[in-house]
Amino acid sequence: MTESVNETVLEGRRTVEAILRGDDPRMLVIVGPCSIHDPNGALEYAQRLRALSDDVDDQFYLIMRTYFEKPRTTIGWKGLVNDPNLDGSYDIAKGLQIARRLLLSIGEMGLPTATEVLDPIVPQYVTDLVSWVSIGARTTESQTHREMASGLSMPVGFKNSTDGNLQIALDAMQSARHSHHFLGIDADGHSCIVATRGNAYGHIILRGGKGRPNYDPVSIAQTEDYLREAGLPPRLLVDCSHDNSGKQYLLQRHVLRSVIQQRLDGTRSIVGILLESNIHEGNQPPAPNIEDLQYGVSVTDGCMSWEMTEHVLRYAHRALAAGPRESW
């Protein structure tokens, strides 16, 4: 860790908290590769995103997706931390080192990062370099992950379940807001009893479910009601991918368009979005030889290209800057 990286991380956390409180009117944008498999490609993407952030920061606060762990429905490549060589050798120590070096390099650019936390021990190695984390749809119901979230030092987004159930995410937010005690490891890697103080910045991420979206105005209004009934702040993020886009990466732009229009219409509960984006569009199967892979193309979910990402974000930026009178 360096002082400059530490300031990037802390400023990122403070800004996200301000957005979630409603003190910062900008929209949070979590954007980047579905998963990181090539550090060189990730660094090039980060450089592009850092340059774009300067042009849109009056309306958007950009944070780069640096997802190193991938939950699987059955089996498959589990991410850079678990299998950095993409060959089933599972050199986790190497994966952790690569992930940490990459986060340090991106932090030195002044660009905050986001990741999904899956293994409950991995956060001890990387989350001091991260400004925002998510808990995935398959793990939001897990007591282990709810307890872990209660002790994390940054805002945590909980996705609704894969079947579209919102109650699971609401319960997770309630649980994470309270203190917990559980077995874990300390900063030196020793087994210990962890005592947490609770995380007041848990929030829900709408990602659709059962092949159906939940970003439309009716679904947003219903989610606001559910949050208020649970005594939780009516603040939420919309995942433009997964079931909200029918798992078709090019349709993310239409989800974004709807979200921006709702913001222009006065909906302030939507405080952010998630986009899956890479240097080049589409995806490809993992391969153990990096030279056999197309550079800048995802090895997990399909992603928008950088050109499309920049276009839609600049378009959305112009619409928000023009205000509700602008028809787009």
Structure, described:
- With 328 residues, the chain is of the alpha/beta class.
- The protein has a single domain (3-322), classed as Aldolase class I (TIM Barrel, Alpha-Beta Barrel).
- The protein has helices at 3-21, 39-56, 92-108, 123-126, 143-151, 167-176, 217-229, 252-264, 306-322; strands at residues 27-32, 60-65, 113-116, 132-135, 156-159, 181-185, 191-195, 202-206, 236-239, 270-276.
- Helix 1 (3-21) crosses helix 3 (92-108) and helix 2 (39-56) packs parallel to helix 3.
- The N and C termini lie far apart (44 Å).
- The mean pLDDT is 95.
Please provide a brief summary of the model.
With 328 residues, this protein is α/β, with parallel strands linked by helices. It is built from 9 helices and 10 strands.
Side-by-side strand order of the widest sheet? 1-2-3-4-5-8-9-10
Strand content: 15-25%
The CATH C-level class name: Alpha Beta
Largest sheet: 8 strands, parallel, barrel
How many domains would you count in the coordinates?
Answer: 1
Structural class determined from secondary elements: alpha/beta
Q: What is the approximate shape?
A: globular
Mean pLDDT: 95
Q: Give the C-alpha Rg.
A: 19 Å
- The CATH topology is what? TIM Barrel
SSE layout and pairings?
Blueprint lengths: L2 H19 L5 E6 L6 H18 L3 E6 L26 H17 L4 E4 L6 H4 L5 E4 L7 H9 L4 E4 L7 H10 L4 E5 L5 E5 L6 E5 L10 H13 L6 E4 L12 H13 L5 E7 L29 H17 L6
Parallel strand pairs: 1-2, 1-10, 2-3, 3-4, 4-5, 5-8, 8-9, 9-10
Antiparallel strand pairs: 6-7
